[in-house]
Amino acid sequence: MIVSELILPLFMIFLTLGLGIYAAAVLDRLLAARQRIPVADSAWRSPLSNAAWLLLQQTNTTEAPDTPAWQLAPALYLSLAAMGLSLVPWSPTLIATDLATGLVLWGSFEALATVVIFLQGWAANAHLALIGAYRYVALGLSYLLISMFVLIGVALPAESLRFIDVVEAQAPLWHVIGQPLGLPLFLVVGLGLTFWGPLNLADSSDLSGGTSSEISGPLRLVWQMARMAMLVAFSAVAATAFLGGWLGPWLPGPVWVLLKTLGVLALLLWLGRSMPRVAPERCVTLMWVVLLPLAFVDLIWAGTLALLMA
Amino acid sequence: MAVSWLRKLAARGPARVFLAQGEHSEGVREYLALSPAVQLVDSPRHASVLLVAGEVPIGWRDDLRRVHDQLPAPFASVWYQSDPFDELISAPRVDTLEALPETLLATHRDLVLQRRGSSPRLLPDVPPNPWQGLGDDGHGGEGMMGGNPYGRPMAMNMQDDRRDGLTLDTLTFRLGPFHPGLPPGMQAETSLQGDLIQTWETQKRPFPESVDLPFHAARERPVSIAELERARARHHLHRLHLGLHLAGWPGLANQVLRLASDLAGQPNIAGLRRQLIRGGFFRLAQPMPGHGRLDDETVHQVGGWMARAAGVGEDARSQDASYRRLGFTPICQAEGDTASRWRQLLDETQQSIDLAHQAERLDLATANTELIETPRGPWGEDAPDDASQILEEVLPGLEWGEAMATLASLELAALETVPGEGALANQERRA
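^ inputs. structure came back:
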């Protein structure tokens, strides 16, 4: 009992986090190499050499930072990613946190991420980091609303907010097909949550790195790992909510979850390298004027389909 | 043993380099961006090597010392075509661009493997201004407001908001003169409410900008139009690279640099345009329509392609008989905003490449040495002068990212009328 309900689920979380962070970094470098961005080291070794360099570097400080908050923010963001992964069912019985309100808890992690990222930017007591923090908070609400509607859409056919029920409800038809707007909208949420690629407004190049512009050394390494971990956690949640989680022929359920997670992760990383960053004002307009109404449509579609299938 | 293994692993990565550009350092950023040995970073906190490229005038040296001291240990500096400070006499100096990536990488590896000690701090680790705060809470003023703790005003709402009437605390700070988003040498003090620029004051003008040698030669004698137009296309593509880097699109930014380095073939500018449009560079990544627009007065101060982006159809090439023979007519946009300047840049790049091909077939040289069109604007009796003061009119009211994109779409430094060492080095390398 302890093995199946505690040790094994925890092992899956740490395994996915460890391998996932490394896989995300390698995939991103492979994509960079495909775009002929020059890299000194092989894609497989490059994340490790970068980590080793950051471990050897001094953790700098700024003039009068909020040191405890500054040190806490990367660890908190990493913890949110780990807690998000704990909600993902690897099979009908293998899950670390099987809550009747799992979808709501995931939504709260998305909201808490806003607090953590703001903390990271604010604690440095530096202007560009602070602007990155402002930006993230200003845009957070836009995609959190989209996330809420899309997740209600996947809960409707299951008549439950439990992730296991959401997966089982996809046995006849995965939500990626039954709710065609759902996954694309949720991917936008993922890009926002992880401030990646076109929605990287918090740590952007026009802010010299934004919320992380002033950090170096091990703290920066933890921040980079936390961002990758959140990408992995989000991909696993997306695979659960839209790609049928453990459902699939021949292979064991956990392997299907890992493969689907890797697929979503690769898609997010590719999107991140295929587009420029959306300007903040245009981003807000896009979210409220285009994507939020589409999320309503998705919800109505999901509700109608659930009624018809019932 | 473990530490040694970790150090060996760390030494395998590229040199993370923060570039501080001095005078006559054109082309260094673009050259290093294509080198696998080097990774250029936007913050000194993310670097292990500070590269000082070109001479740094006396008035800028304290700013450079401040940048130097922001790098986390272990770090070092490398000086390109410039003498290290007396305190950094052991820092390597390099004079050829080709030797630069290897020197940077070797310096980084020596630091990681502890074959070289970290650079000393040049300034005392104290606040730049003494504490001037009052009050029990150290808030810096009388009562609950006011004062200048550490020489800076408190974040207070002293100005009306320019966007939606929601007044936020004003944040005032200095930026530059080695910030990668500003022209080299430029320093500005800006006030923000949230992420919106309220005021912008240029405190140090950017260093004069050198253009490639064919433009200098064209003022003295007829030169090949093909060579001149390819130099112009290269200059424009380098600017587009900067815009794409700022827009967070490193893959396409590097592709643009590769196009710029091989203009003798058939560079696919149409393909580049398609990628920019499909990726949403103009519609999503650039400021809203009308933002960053130059008015009639500022348009004439900047001149050149930036004025043509605002509908001013003036181009010195129209007055050159050889260009008229090629059927040259200036290309213009109408809007004059930031996005239209990028469109203009792309259109003029294509036009220059087409002109170069035509001129090559006809073996044409320029006919007019009195007045030429440089990428910075017309150069006749007078060369284009510094126009950085227009930013005080153009940037207020823009969101930070819009302001940076607008800055990247403008060339405001004065034109250097004597070819700098950077231009000479670039010419030598290409030859």
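Chain A touches chain B through 56 residues (CB under 8 Å). The mean pLDDT of chain A is 92.
thumbs up if we can close this ticket
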